[in-house]
Design brief:
By secondary structure, the protein is an alpha+beta fold. The chain folds into two domains: 39-148, Lipocalin (Beta Barrel), CATH 2.40.128; 180-346, Methane Monooxygenase Hydroxylase, Chain G, domain 1 (Up-down Bundle), CATH 1.20.58. It is 61% helix and 22% strand. The chain is built from four helices and eight strands; from the N terminus they run αββββββββααα. The chain has helices at 21-41, 150-235, 240-291, 295-346; strands at 50-56, 59-67, 72-82, 88-100, 103-110, 116-125, 128-136, 139-148. An eight-stranded antiparallel barrel has the order 1-2-3-4-5-6-7-8. α2 (150-235) packs antiparallel against α3. Mean pLDDT is 85; it is low at 1-19 and 26-44.
């Protein structure tokens, strides 16, 4: 073995350990991040000059500041937001203030969202400015304005506008649905009301149809009574008082017949002005029911169809019955006129 003179042997443990790769990467990342911030925003902790963004669920605010050599700050803030209906509003305010170390004090003077004069105080950090003040409608709140550039502002603004449009569209859809629901509810209510009217008509029609055969016989009976009294009057020759009394009785019978006819005319008028239009509406309702299959409408239409099927033959029977009674009246009325003329001539 050769000589070892002049060679210093150092223990492995005494050598400096290499820096772990992960820590090296973290350090480089932080360094690059800081360099990127400086290159993009052109700022440092010693200067507040730059653009800042505050993002909210319903909008954003952009704060632009310029710091002068005497640490005075000037600039502008503009605010874009949307309400629960998706309507966008915007406002702006001028900004003045000062910076002392990292402390920032700002005064906002504007209108609309920033009404009157508001103030905010906070700290300048690498990520931006955090302000606490009464600049939110007079309420004390804390807002963080992050450093940004124009491109980021435009991206965020587009996102806000899209969110507003989505909310506005959803509101419009909801309003259209509400109106559609209201129309459907009104349709169901009208169909249900029409069903009740048809059922009521069916009941009343049954009553009248049951009575009318008796009314026809009553008209004919009045005529027979008038004819009998006329014959009796003719048989009482020379008895002027009795004959006069019979003539009065004949006229009274005719008055009774006219009263019955007036009731008939009232029924015909009601039928023409109310029942016929009701059945015309019911006919149109059948078409509506046939074209609307929504469950609540279909349920109302089922009850309506049953009521209509029952009321239709009743309607036809009442129409025929009224015409028949009118023809009976005209026949008997002509007979009454002949009888009264004969009674008058006999006196």
């Amino acid at each position: 073995m050769g000589s070892t003179e002049g060679i210093s042997l150092v223990s492995v443990e005494s050598l400096p350990r290499p820096v772990p790769e992960s820590r090296t990467r973290a350090f480089l990342a932080k360094t690059l991040c800081c360099l990127a911030l400086l290159s993009i925003y052109g700022c440092s902790l010693s200067s507040a000059t730059g653009t800042y963004l505050a993002k909210f669920t319903n909008g954003l605010a952009r704060l632009e500041l310029v710091q002068s050599g005497d640490h005075m700050l000037t600039g502008e803030v503009d605010w874009v937001s949307f309400d629960t209906n998706g309507r966008l509003t915007s406002s702006s305010a001028s900004v003045t203030g000062m910076m002392d170390g990292g402390a920032v004090n700002l005064t906002f003077k504007g209108n609309a969202f920033l009404s009157g004069t508001s103030t905010g105080a906070g700290e300048l950090g690498w990520n931006g400015i955090t302000l606490t003040g009464n600049f939110n409608g007079g309420k004390v709140s804390t807002v963080t304005f992050a450093r940004a550039n124009e491109l980021e502002y435009q991206w965020t603004l587009v996102a806000v506008e899209k969110n507003a449009q989505a909310i506005a569209f959803a509101r419009e859809q909801a309003e259209r649905q509400r109106q559609e629901d209201a129309k459907r509810n009104q349709r169901v209510a009208r169909i249900e009301k029409l069903t009740a009217i048809l059922k009521n008509f069916d009941t009343e029609a049954s009553v009248h149809l049951h009575r009318w055969p008796g009314a026809e016989k009553t008209m004919q009976a009045i005529t027979s009574d008038m004819e009998a009294k006329l014959q009796q009057e003719h048989s009482l020759e020379g008895n002027g008082v009795a004959r006069g009394q019979l003539a009065v009785a004949i006229n009274q019978d005719d008055v009774s017949a006219e009263q019955m006819h007036n009731q008939l005319l009232s029924l015909k008028n009601d039928f023409t002005n109310n029942v016929e239009p009701m059945m015309a509406i019911a006919g149109r309702a059948k078409s509506i029911c046939a074209s609307d299959s929504r469950p609540d409408v279909a349920s109302a239409c089922q009850a309506f169809s049953q009521a209509y099927a029952t009321a239709l033959p009743q309607y036809q029977a009442v129409s025929t019955g009224l015409d028949h009674l009118e023809s009976i009246y005209q026949i008997e009325h002509q007979k009454h006129q002949d009888i009264m003329q004969a009674a008058t001539a006999a006196n």
